[in-house]
């Protein structure tokens, strides 16, 4: 497996929608950084891996669902950088393993399953102590890499872009990526997050907490306060990992037209939302927009499999 990470390229989107809206639209292709450890997941893992190495940990333990991009990336990163990995998976074991978990096992990850009631306690000292008693001295990375190390890494996402953007758009799950991006921008810029969870407005509190805790820490930041940010909560398509025909069709058409594959859980919803808002006049003419492609394409195989099964059941 290659240790080489490439600088994510910028790709401009030219379409009738962008021309009519009078904006310049670019995509930051984090999905192209590495075959397996890419997207925002690499940035969330980077400083966690460095801390684990500095503190002489040999085992990483983290959490995720059965289709988790974070589990997938952590397994690959552990294999790349010489860590043993343990993935604590929400729910019961189901065989055969889906493509995400099968890949994780191939990378050497040990899978452990917790029922949903226990899994909800994943951030409590009691469960962490239980896991350390069971597995020994492990470096625990929270679900999605959502900690201050994760925020620190995400500060670096937009830093490599050589164009000054007015609005930076990103899909939002744990809010870590949005927090890091907001800390990396100057006052004239604005970060816009598209929650992929239903009723995602609660993430505002999570973002404020991450920003406050980060600024109170000794970790580096280019500015003493975050740039302005907002949540656009209308494009979740029913909730986390929910997909319908409209989203599938949009994703397929966008890929064909612009040669940019989208993942259904995160980027497809954000891209759909941006293109819809452009048609509504949400953005100002002359704006330069940056859409952050956060990777996650590995999850499409599982989503398509589930969607096809549901379609077959509905037709019977």
What does this structure look like?
The protein is an alpha/beta fold. It has twelve helices and ten strands. The chain has helices at 16-21, 39-54, 69-81, 99-106, 116-119, 125-135, 148-154, 176-184, 203-216, 245-258, 267-280, 300-315; strands spanning 10-13, 24-29, 59-64, 84-90, 110-114, 139-141, 167-172, 190-195, 228-231, 288-293. The strands form two sheets. A six-stranded mixed beta sheet has the order 1-2-10-7-8-9, with helices on both faces. Strand 4 (84-90), helix 4 (99-106) and strand 5 form a beta-alpha-beta unit. Helix 2 crosses helix 7 (148-154). The relative contact order is 0.16.
Sum this structure up briefly.
The chain has 316 residues and is an alpha/beta fold. 42% of the residues lie in helices and 17% in strands.
Write the layout of secondary structure elements.
Layout: E1 10-13, H1 16-21, E2 24-29, H2 39-54, E3 59-64, H3 69-81, E4 84-90, H4 99-106, E5 110-114, H5 116-119, H6 125-135, E6 139-141, H7 148-154, E7 167-172, H8 176-184, E8 190-195, H9 203-216, E9 228-231, H10 245-258, H11 267-280, E10 288-293, H12 300-315
Parallel strand pairs: 2-10, 3-4, 3-6, 4-5, 7-8, 7-10, 8-9
Antiparallel strand pairs: 1-2
